[in-house]
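Re: the pair you flagged

First of the two:
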Amino acid sequence: MSDDSFIREVNEELRQDQAKALWTRFGPMVIGAAALIVAATAGWVGYDYWTQSRANASGDRFSAALELAGEGNLDEALRAFQALQEDGYGAYPVLAKLRAATVMAERGEAEAAVAEFDAVSADGAVPQSIQDLAKLRAGYVLVDSGSYDDVAARVEVLTTGTSSLRHAAREALALSAWREGRAADALELFEQITDDDSAPRNARQRATIMVELLRGTGAAS
């Protein structure tokens, strides 16, 4: 056997001995770490499946409740939305609360509907966009059932130039002012909508009709 062959065999033996020593020392730790990784991965997959299943189930229930409301089965729809508020998952309890309030308004229960919308708008755990939407919905209910001040208390904050709901908020305020005989205030608010090029087309059309009506009758002079 040549010297080179002998040296290679010695080196190979040394590497095997080192590998065995390392495995003896660290093998259990490696196995434990691998087991933890597998367990964590399995746990995450299981949790993700569980959350998706709950979200899907709540979504199905929400859709069914919407269908009931669309068919005019308001009592059943309201019960379904209220049940979803109790045990729904994710954003569905809040969405169900909003829809339940809408059903209440459709049933003529304006006070109860406004109370539900107000509860959502005051909930700091709810995204700001949803809080603002609840304020607007309460304002629209109060156009017919409350005073101008009631409407303003909900939607005036939304009439600023940066709010995405400003056009609808101005329309609610304008309608309430018109209903209370405050024609000049109504005209000013409707003109804010017609003069805003970013306002939705249908909102501008409605506002234009009201501006022409108010000017034509001379009520705002």
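Second of the two:
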Amino acid sequence: MGQKNQLWWDLPPQETFLLNKEIYEIEDAAYHKTVSELVKLLDISKILTVPVRKLSLGQRMKCELVAALLHNPKVLFLDEPTIGLDVVMQKVMRDFIKTYNEKFEATIILTSHYMDDVKELAKRIIIIDTGKILYDGKLSAVIDKYARNKILTVTFGAEPNQRKLAELGEVTSYQFPQAVINVKRQDTSQKASTLLKEFPVADLTIEEPPIEAIIREIFSGKE
């Protein structure tokens, strides 16, 4: 997936599918089975006879996927598969990629600048900078290795002592009744306990920093 299209612009998607069937020499039974499964997964049965030029970007992306997957490739390279899509279509595309991976047991290599793609789809990630591999391993291990802080989001039932609050960690934002505080990972339990004991806390959540922030840490060489 990328910026190049293989669908014939003035013809319906199903015509491109038939052309690819012949190019890949797919038997009739296998072709119909695969098309049926992919069309169902992507919910595009109603647009198969509509000229490509009349389809939305999201609809074209779905049809591009079908055309690319007719021959059931064992290795699939996806370059920015959600680029230009709205948030609803991004989720649809991610759900499809995940389902396809599980159903057809294909290896998927995904290139993306969207961290949501990475978080939702990748178990193993490779971070490359100017041709050098900075990290190769599990996504979960990146967080454990590079994330120095955790984020405490606190909702107060009454106005807290802001000076005392600042002693707990870095208060990155405060607008009553909510405050966001960065604390060192190893101090998270102790800081959360202090908040609950000494402040009028109505609600408290503890989160990992955004994956974007962790990636910035890696690229900046802060280890």
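The chain has two domains: 13-122, 148-207.

-B.
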